[in-house]
TrEMBL record, chain A:
Domain of life: Bacteria
One Pfam family from the record: SoxD
Name used for this protein in its record: Sarcosine oxidase, delta subunit family
GO biological process, one term: tetrahydrofolate metabolic process
Ranges annotated as spanning the membrane: none
Signal peptide span: none
InterPro entries associated with the record: SoxD (IPR006279), SoxD_sf (IPR038561)
A GO MF label: sarcosine oxidase activity
Native organism: Jannaschia donghaensis
UniProtKB/TrEMBL annotation, chain B:
Lineage, highest ranks first: Bacteria, Pseudomonadati, Pseudomonadota, Alphaproteobacteria, Rhodobacterales
Keywords on record: Cytoplasm, FAD, Flavoprotein, FMN, Nucleotide-binding, Oxidoreductase
Name by which UniProt lists this protein: Sarcosine oxidase subunit beta
InterPro entries, per the entry: FAD-dep_OxRdtase, FAD/NAD-bd_sf, Rhodanese-like_dom, SoxB
Catalytic activity annotation: sarcosine + O2 + H2O = formaldehyde + glycine + H2O2; sarcosine + (6S)-5,6,7,8-tetrahydrofolate + O2 = (6R)-5,10-methylene-5,6,7,8-tetrahydrofolate + glycine + H2O2
Keyword Cytoplasm: yes
Length: 102, 414
């Protein structure tokens, strides 16, 4: 069972309490953007085998969104962080570099 | 290759079965091939087979990083059906189903195709309307299916409880000519036929890079050395995104885990395949007597070939109401496979931004049933550059908004 710590309410919760929300840090494009940008935002994904930055929602808890860094090949979680970020914060990147959880 | 026949069995019976030989040959890689197929699963092997059979292209290698048929080909629940809503889907799945009917004869290898019939249960009024619509679409497409009432469902599958308070059976979409086949035998049969045409099957040969020259593919780097090719077909299901990344482009795919499980073997009690999409579960009985049960996918990206335990719990909890007898069964084995899911839940059979490189992926949770049709279309696409079977499945459809929107949109129950 995947266990993630929600950075909004601080609880470490099992995946049954969470809803996955796909790749994080996507740049959003609307109808006035180019076809390339719109396709990229809506459909194209890195789908990495390795460390994946992804969105989660604490659906059966505080209800808020957050982000997580998780290895899709090992299911190791390197930490969770606020959804109001454009890029992974330094402590998460450091944890990934060290190969240990924050 | 020694042909299998009644005469061959008699001959081998008289000499301790010493003359059967290997099913496929083990040869070192050549320096160059006309076509390299990455992925020796059902779809990759079928692609190679029809390249040879339909287009006479036999200087072909099939590369496999693990063992032949060890990915999703050996991990699915072996269901074959073609009762899809959209025309392009019905065309390719029905082509596959009809090829399955003659596949044992064609390959001279018993794939144990068993057209026992598939019922897709309607357990909500929404599903009743949806399946009636599909039945009408299928009759226009020349795919034989029919809407059946609950009484007929009960006749076809007496172990089912159709009056459940939570999931009552309101009818079903019945495809009498759907069924199951032996999944490993499909891979082994195609492999044997490929090797017989002189193709090389290279196991434990992982592709680590894709060589290009001026936007055109020239070969692959592998754990067994560099191999040159004119054309490259990537047929690797869950790892399609990884291979695309090697070639410098992205695909509209996400890889997730899908699980299945089997019970202890019991006496024959169910001679049809039943799919219950509302509860994300489906079940059939194998020739060994095991109840083969498939569930839903996990919602998050995963390459580990194992899934979440709570999904199995949810699947079984719901199936127990429809099939009360399984509450007394022990479950023997559980496993997972990595399925590559697209935005419209339809596959991608397509040219790519790299000249000479083709992809066949995105079959998601329902690839096994499509193997012969997918191989047929993909072979034509590689040999001729276009195929009527694959035309609608190009990767540019997402950009252009031409989705093949199958209402298996929950991505489950194949």
């Amino acid at each position: 069972m995947l266990i993630l710590t929600c950075p909004n309410c601080g609880l470490a919760v099992e995946e049954t309490e969470l809803s996955p929300g796909g790749e994080a840090h996507l740049e959003r494009f609307g109808p006035t953007s180019s076809d390339d940008a719109f396709e990229e935002y809506l459909f194209l994904r890195d789908n990495v085998k390795g460390v994946h930055f992804e969105r989660w929602r604490h659906a059966y808890g505080c209800g808020k969104w957050f982000l997580a860094a998780r290895d899709t090949a090992t299911l190791q979680v390197f930490g969770t962080y606020s959804a109001q970020t454009k890029a992974p914060p330094p402590d998460i990147l450091a944890a990934i570099k060290k190969g240990k959880n924050t | 290759m020694r042909r299998f026949s009644a005469f061959a069995i008699a001959r081998e019976a008289l000499r301790n079965h010493e003359g059967w030989g290997r099913t496929w040959a083990k040869r070192p890689p050549k320096a160059r091939y006309d076509v390299i197929i990455v992925g020796a699963g059902g779809h990759g092997l079928a692609t190679a087979y029809y390249l040879g059979k339909n287009f006479g292209i036999t200087n072909v290698a099939i590369l496999e990083k693990g063992w032949l048929g060890g990915g999703n080909t050996g991990r699915n629940t072996t269901i074959i059906r073609s009762n899809y809503l959209q025309d392009p889907s019905a065309a390719i799945y029905e082509k596959a189903r009809s090829l399955y009917e003659g596949l044992s004869q064609d390959l001279n290898y018993n794939v144990m195709f068993s057209p026992r019939g598939v019922i897709m249960l309607a357990q909500t009024h929404h599903e009743v309307r949806g399946y009636k619509r599909t039945a009408h679409a299928n009759s226009l497409q020349g795919v034989t299916t029919e809407w059946i009432e609950p009484k007929r469902v009960k006749e076809l599958c007496p172990i089912m409880n159709i009056d459940g308070p939570r999931y009552p059976v309101l009818g079903g979409l019945w495809q009498a000519r759907g069924g199951t086949a032996r999944h490993d035998a499909v891979a082994w049969g195609y492999a044997r036929a490929c090797t017989d045409m002189g193709m090389d099957i290279l196991q434990k040969c992982e592709v680590t890079g894709i060589a290009r020259d001026g936007g055109k593919v020239t070969g692959v780097q592998t754990t067994q050395g560099d191999i040159a090719c004119d054309k490259l077909g990537v047929v690797v299901a869950g790892h399609s995104g990884v291979l695309a990344q090697m070639a410098g482009f992205r695909l509209p795919l996400e890889s997730v885990a899908l699980q299945a499980l089997v019970s202890e073997p019991v006496k024959p009690c169910m001679d049809v395949v039943v799919m219950a999409n509302t509860v994300h579960g489906y079940m059939s009985q194998s020739d060994k007597g095991e109840m083969v049960i498939g569930g839903g996918t996990d919602g998050y990206n995963n390459y580990t070939q194992r899934g979440s335990f709570h999904h199995i719990e949810e699947t079984l909890r719901a199936l127990v109401e429809t099939f009360p007898m399984i509450s007394r069964l022990k479950m023997l084995r559980q496993w997972g496979g990595i399925v590559d899911v697209t935005g419209d839940r339809s596959p991608i059979l397509s040219k790519t931004p790299v000249d000479g490189m083709y992809v066949n992926c995105g079959w998601g949770t329902g690839g096994f049933k499509a193997i012969p049709g997918s191989g047929w279309g993909m072979a034509e696409l590689i040999a001729k550059g276009h195929s009527p079977l694959t035309e609608a499945f190009g990767m540019e459809r997402f950009r252009e908004g031409r989705f093949i929107d199958e209402s298996v949109a929950a991505g489950v129950a194949h």
